[in-house]
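Entry 14: structure prediction run for Glycosidase. Input pasted below.
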Amino acid sequence: MSDLTQVEVLWVEKRIENRIRFGCVADEKTVDRHRRILSFAPGSIFAFVRWTSNDFGTVISRVDILRAVASGQRCSTVPYVKPGGEILLRLSGWQKVERVLRMIDAVEALGIDPADVAPDHWHHVHNRVSVNENPRAYTMARHQAWLHRRRAMR
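Run finished. Output tokens:
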């Protein structure tokens, strides 16, 4: 059994789109012209964005920021993710998803890979996004503090 977390990304024009917004892909396998399986190493963080629509418009918009787990570790089930992952952020509804995507863009504008952001940041973002407040921005100083803390934990 592989220790990798597998995510099925799927695209059916004007119906379904499952995509990875950020994360370091360890392996990729093309299933067919609409589906790929992306794999992530244990401990890596990635954003999984999905939406589904029908003839009347968008039915589901969701963003999950997950940490890949090792085989046998406790995890939460997430559609299209095997075996699952540690949920750092889970939001649905286009307005909330769009705000999170803008926050990811802001982190990238600082020159920081969102996959390297402190996991606690993703844990606490949902409170401000859900009540439509301006979420606390991730700064270079906060990032440097996180990197220092991560080095000290090793």
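Notes: Residues 5-153 form one domain. Will compare against the previous run tomorrow.
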